[in-house]
Design a protein that fits this description.
With about 475 residues, this protein is an alpha/beta fold. It is about 30% helix and about 25% strand. It is built from twelve helices and 21 strands. Strands 1, 2, 3, 4, 5, 6 and 16 form a seven-stranded mixed β-sheet that branches. Strand 5 and strand 6 form a beta hairpin. Helix 3 packs across helix 5.
Amino acid sequence: MPETHSYDLVILGGGAAAFAAITEADRRGLSTAMVNTGLPLGGTCVNVGCVPSKHLLAMAETASGPAHNPFDGVEYSDDEPSIDWPAAIDEKDRLVEQLRHENYVSVAEHFETDIYEGFGRLVEDTTIEVVDGADEGAHITGEKVLIATGSSPVAAPIEGLANVDYETSETILERRNLPESFIVLGGGYVALEWGQILHRVGVDITILQRSDRVLSEMEGQLGREIQRCFRDEGIDVVTGNHFERVRTGAVDDGHGTSEEGVVVETTMDGTDQQFTAEELFVATGIQPNTEDIGLDTVGIETNDCGAVVVDEHFQTTNPDIYAAGDVIGEPELETVAAKEGNHAVKNAFGNEQVTIDYHAVPAVVFTSPEVASVGTTELEYMDEHGTCTCRTVQMDDVPKAKAVKDTRGLLQVVKHHETDEIVGVHMVGPRAADMIPEATLAVKFGLTIDDIIDTIHPFPTFSEAFKHACQAFRRDTSKMSCCIE
């Protein structure tokens, strides 16, 4: 009979939700253990998500700088930048290792959380068995359990895809060499961010999206604008594809000869299309990591997407087990996962009944230009109210954008047609990720357009676009000086 180790809280998973949970548990004086299933400690964000991708985005932007110099007073030679991809991967690995140790390993040690390494499975009520890995055979039980196993990339059900080698946002991080060309399947943030990284380090990129625009879950103007920016940069973005088949086939290497590559067959408006590249990158979504972790054994329900079903307090259908993070579905964001993990502990051990207002959760795509959004879209508001009062300003009307010669993008404000409260803000542009917090506060706390107009904004900044969009409800913004109130 294996020895059972007992704790107040046992967590299946080792990412953002898990670490937020042990932080709150420590504040309450609870004993904690983690069964780290899957990725190294720290989960998606530090290992294969936010940290490495944003690091490589910044590297790629630096590499592309000379080609996008807008200033007459700066000249570069005709030499192309030299990209050392293996060196970039080595640098990424050092950063990930540093942050994993500083922000996760040392934090777990500080909170005296016991870490069990291996694949964990619920075997009865609140007991987890490590069935594979370094701590195989261990049994860990808790007064409460938190499931925080995260998510993994998933390939769309396209004929032939299973028979073709392809990269994902996780596997690409291990590549030491890159092909001449990639077809990227998908049009979400992963497809766009990685498409731009790879393009800017010299890979020919074709992005194929099923719907009529990329970022199809966001405000329509955002997808259309980032498509335009990508095409201007030389990234081929093809929307409206109905994927028929993926197969291997001969691909022209650009030097008059052919080599084995990948062929994607689609139809567009009833017309057959064929796209070829050396290799394939699949960015068609993610799926919750719920397979074979014993959910049925302990009476936990999942939905059609495989996500753990929870109530608004993150409690599963087993009252002693909670769940948080990507494993419970959208929005799959690191900051949301952390907040959910924190709240799950408060509810499990303090009965605090805390919830999250998902309407006021911002989403960001860290391309160049950046994309950011919070709250209700124009279409959603029209569907609910049958009317919409919205205003959009172009970044080329913003003085800061003109001054730095980067006028890509736009900003839209959606307000309530009766109360003037701001219910949605959607933007594409430089520094959009840094601008969205002000808009998030406006949506969260029900600020009106006049509240924003009456708030003095520093000049010149990109954030003035938000104020200008609010002013556009009250005046003709094409007829005003830079600092008009």
